[in-house]
TrEMBL record:
InterPro entries: JmjC_dom (IPR003347), JMJD6_ArgDemeth/LysHydrox (IPR050910)
SMART domains: JmjC (SM00558)
Pfam families given in the database record: JmjC (PF02373)
UniProt protein name: JmjC domain-containing protein
Length: 415
């Protein structure tokens, strides 16, 4: 079931040099200083595009979320005008910051070899490369007790040009996010991508989480066609008993694979908004104004989130893909398939892969590359560690399951 780790992050920096400190998420003070609107506009510039959602009100009569890219300047101005449902959501802020650091480095940097997990290696520019634990330009470290992150290592290898030809989602995409929004912004009922785990740290403000009980989770998933027809607001469902938890600053919420959840921003401290001068776009700048009333200040809830995978959830990840692949591939009736592709299994295979990638952000090639990447990780280790053999065996079983389903889908056997 879901879990919450209270006070996982200290309010202030410590001077400890211990291993425990080195694996911690730094401090709320440090994170907040980098993630308030003034700092974001200063770092990325007012024209930087971020993904936003206009959240419907709970009484909105089923109105869908409106998602679009906006500049940071536009987001700040809309918040200043009282658009309390506008939510910066699913922003790859950490990756954006790391790319920005690369762009700021004008001279060619020497290369260094950095550690991938506990044994793999990748060659990256010294200044821009990040270690396995550091994220967002030294914004934070992931605590070691959350375990290895196979997803991040795979995405980083792909971005560095040392990975395979097919990754998840868009090329270069990763699964680290920032969420910034006023109280009343919220995320409807859903489960996380690819059957992964997720953790979410509240930097400031409070969130209210809704979870079904484990039995209720299964009923809702089955009744909602495994995510295709979920109710947006779990509070309107009579299918499940609910658990609720309030997340405070410094708390980490853990969500297991394929576990439904709904999250509401309920309270936050007031954050000062920068005034952005727009007369000459090329010279757009931030003006520091002392009076909060002149600049505007709005309450905000800020959090960072990772989706991640390791040996404890890889089977569920593969199971989630198999459901997606079976469902989508067999949407095409056999007669239609023959009319469109005849006996050309290669064309049909390419069509299935395209349908999967466009519809679900992964396909047989991307998941197979991910699993093989992890096998190579163990091949490249100088010394085997306890448990490596069982993890290798698990990954090989997952690959076998994937191969069997692909053959079934392509040759339409076993329907």
């Amino acid at each position: 079931p879901p879990a919450i780790i209270r006070n996982a992050v200290p309010n202030h920096e410590t001077t400890s040099g211990t291993l425990e400190h080195q694996s911690a998420l730094l401090s709320l003070e440090h994170l907040l200083s980098r993630l308030v609107p003034t700092a974001l506009v200063e770092t990325f510039g007012p024209n930087h595009l971020v993904p936003t959602t206009e959240c419907p009100t709970p009484s909105g009569g089923g109105r869908q979320e409106l998602c679009m890219l906006r500049t940071l300047a536009d987001v700040v101005e809309l918040w200043r005008r009282g658009e309390n449902g506008l939510y910066i959501k699913d922003w790859h802020m950490q990756a954006d910051k790391e790319r920005l650091l690369l762009q700021l480095d004008d001279q060619q940097m020497p290369l260094e070899t950095v550690c991938l997990g506990s044994g793999g290696r990748s060659t990256l520019p010294c200044k821009a490369g990040r270690s396995n634990a550091l994220h967002g330009g030294d914004l934070y470290r992931v605590p070691c007790y959350l375990g290895q992150d196979w997803m991040d290592e795979f995405c980083r290898s792909f971005e560095a040009g040392h990975g395979c030809c097919s990754s998840f989602g868009e090329a270069g995409s990763d699964y680290r996010f920032a969420y910034i929004g006023p109280p009343s912004s919220w995320t409807p009922l859903h489960f996380d991508v690819f059957g992964t785990y997720s953790w979410s740290l509240n930097v400031c403000g409070e969130k209210l989480w809704f979870f079904p009980t484990p039995d209720g989770n299964e009923r809702l998933l089955e009744g909602g066609l495994r995510g295709l027809a979920l109710v947006p607001d779990i509070r309107t469902s009579t299918w499940a008993e609910l658990w609720t938890v309030t997340q405070f600053p410094g708390d980490i919420v853990f969500v297991p694979s394929c576990y439904l959840h709904q999250v509401h921003n309920i309270d936050g401290p007031r954050a000062t908004l920068p005034i952005i001068v727009r007369e000459v776009p090329e010279a757009q700048s931030i003006h520091e104004v002392g009076d909060d009333c002149a600049r505007g200040a709005v309450p905000l809830v800020i959090s960072v989130n990772h989706n991640w995978c390791n040996e404890w959830c890889v089977e569920k990840m593969v199971g989630a893909f198999c459901r997606d692949a079976s469902r989508l591939a067999f949407l095409v009736e056999e007669g239609d398939r023959v009319a469109l592709f005849g006996e050309d299994t290669r064309l049909w295979h390419d069509h299935v892969e395209s349908m999967l990638l466009n519809g679900t952000n992964w396909n047989f090639a991307s998941l197979r590359n991910f699993l093989r990447f992890r096998l190579r990780f163990y091949d490249n280790q100088d010394e085997a560690e306890a448990g490596d053999a069982s993890v290798r065996s698990l990954i090989e079983e997952c690959l076998g399951r994937l191969d069997a389903l692909e053959e079934q889908v392509i040759y339409r056997s076993g329907r």
